[in-house]
Amino acid sequence: MTAPDAPGPGFVTFGVLRVDGAGTAAELVGILTDEVRSWVRHTPGFISSRVHVNADRTVVINRGEWTDEAAYRTSFKENPAGGVLHALGARPGVLAATVFSGAPATPVVEGPESGEQPGVVVVATRHLGGRESADAVLDLLASSGEWKREFPGFISATPYVDQDGTTFINYPMWVSEVAYQAWMGDPRIAEGQEELARLEVAPPEYVLCTVAAQVDAAAP
């Protein structure tokens, strides 16, 4: 795990790979994990990589955390060692590839299981009209925090927003699928979704995942 006194992420990417099945998903998890362990984790500004797979093994998502955008660009995006990772979207079996980049936003809502390892997570992507809508979504997240902080099995929810406020990712985590299903069955979730829908310009995308691998930055 990342050291407690290490700098927090100022720039985050979510690379989403939609694939043709379990075989391709397993191959991509292996490639991502091996590449990050072999060289990415040693680069300046890298904090962590967390690789996720959805239940039917048709989506692989890598969340990369960096100290800032400059570190991401110089250490990864412009790094000549990154050829394998940069070309993942063109590999056989990959049907579509997208990358979100942005910054963590506030509030981060922490639940009673804060600090526990996640059993399941959701990558929830919302498409908005701009910064004003993104701020309104953050306000809704803040207002819901009172009851979420006490919900059994809930770990945390971290929001991320891109530079122009048109893409918003919420990243909630639970200790187990049982806790997640109880959460989704709470009527307050449906009420919140109705409010959020009024701010969206396209349907949201939800991916329920487990964590397949995590690699943190190498010790200095």
Give your account of this protein's structure:
The chain has six helices and nine strands; from the N terminus they run E-H-E-E-H-H-E-E-E-H-E-E-H-H-E. It has helices at 22-38, 69-77, 83-86, 131-148, 177-184, 187-197, and strands spanning 11-19, 46-54, 59-66, 94-104, 109-110, 120-128, 154-161, 167-174, 200-216. The radius of gyration is 17 Å and the shape is globular. The mean pLDDT is 94. A hairpin with a 5-residue loop joins strand 7 (154-161) and strand 8. Helices cover 30% and strands 37% of the residues. The chain folds into two domains: 11-102, Alpha-Beta Plaits (2-Layer Sandwich); 105-209, Alpha-Beta Plaits. The protein has 220 residues and is of the alpha+beta class.
Our Rg estimate from Cα atoms comes to 17 Å
Would you count the extended β strands for me? Answer: 9
Structural class computed from helices and strand pairing = alpha+beta
Beta fraction: 35-45%
Biggest sheet character = 8 strands, antiparallel, barrel
How many helices? The count is 6
How would you sum up the global shape? globular
CATH architecture of the largest domain, by name, is 2-Layer Sandwich
